[in-house]
Amino acid sequence: MNVTLENERLRIGVKSKGAELLSVFNKQNQLEYMWSGDPTFWGKTSPVLFPIVGMLKDDTFVYQDKKYQLSRHGFARDAEFDLLPSENNRLNFTLRSSTESLLRYPFDFQLTISYLLEENFLKVLYTVENKGKEKMYFSLGAHPAFNVPLISDSTYNDHYLLFNKIETAPRWPISGGGLIESDPVSFLNNSDTIKLDKALFAQDAIVLKHLASDRVSLRCSTHPYGFDFIFEGFPYLGIWAAKNADFVCIEPWCGIADSVNHTQDLVSKEGIEIVNPAESWSRMWKVQFY
To answer: For residue 146, what is the domain's CATH number?
Structure first.
């Protein structure tokens, strides 16, 4: 099921499978900002990463001496969410743990994803509720893919990403098995700019940790269109595109793939989030389109 939400400036489309954002159309400049999901390159548009981000070592984690298996990015992106009663400027989707999910992930949870429109802002809110009787360990991340180039008169290489603070931050390479290597490599050196080039992603995503910035903007040297992506409260950031594809993913994460040296213990996993019984956890990212 696909649903739409719109105001005087933006119209978005979301599907109930994975509560996945499909479209962001700017009524003022008549531009579509989201990747089409062309399966020739990458058949998704904005998958939700839960209850893990990235790969587990051998697709396995250990909790209370028991092994569980989860594939890359977890199961929420392929699950059917329930659409809650609609509000004027907001769509709410919810996913609840099930007998099947408990076999792969032993926590009783409710995940709610809300899409809100305010003027030319899209806000995406994640709320994780612990419905069980013990601490819940999880990761959560976003993976939206945006069209690059935004208009036909520009090229991929005309675009760049601009952070709101000067950064000196290494890139953490991803192994052939999808794990984080133990040693980073030099990447941002007293700079606030990443010039987009498809060669950047030849060896998978750019993974950055604990940036000073909480905002990154897509800009172009040949036209004024773009967006500001605000990711306050997310300690990791992935930037990725499929080979030769005309998009860039901006991926704020609370959590990260296992390192090549990880023991597979869920509790000690880097970046793991914790929510106590009967409590909730939330994060929001938002984008201003222009």
So the answer is: 2.70.98.10
Can you give the pTM of this predicted structure?
A: 0.96
The H-or-E segment that residue 99 falls in is helix 99-104
Asked if 105 contacts 99 with a C-beta cutoff of 8 angstroms, the reply is: no
What's the sign of the alpha-carbon dihedral 248, 55, 214, 210? negative
Rounded Cα distance between 81 and 48, Å, is 11
In whole angstroms, what is the distance from residue 289 CA to residue 25 CA?
9
Residue type present at position 95: L
Distance CA 150, CA 141 (A): 24
pLDDT (0 to 100) of residue 87 = 80
CA dihedral 254, 260, 265, 269 (to 10 degrees): -20
User: pLDDT tier at 9 (50, 70, 90 boundaries)?
Assistant: very high
Range of the domain at 63: 2-289
The backbone torsions φ and ψ at residue 18, rounded to the nearest 5 degrees and listed phi first, read 75, 5
Report how far residue 127's alpha carbon sits from residue 110's, in angstroms, rounded to the nearest whole number. Answer: 8
As a residue count, the chain comes to 290
- Tokens for 194, please give them: 């990443």
What pLDDT is stored for residue 210 in this prediction?
98
Read off the tokens for 54: 């990235």
- The pLDDT tens digits of the residues spanning 160-216 come to 999 999 999 999 999 999 999 999 999 999 999 999 999 999 999 999 999 999 999
Total domains, the chain = 1
- Nearest of 17, 25, 12 to residue 48 by alpha carbon: 17
Closest CA to 254 of 172, 139, 128, 123: 139
Q: Which of 34, 63, 231 is nearest to 141 (CA)?
A: 231
pLDDT for 146: 98
Q: Cβ(224)–Cβ(194) under 8 Å?
A: no
Average pLDDT over residues 127-153: 97
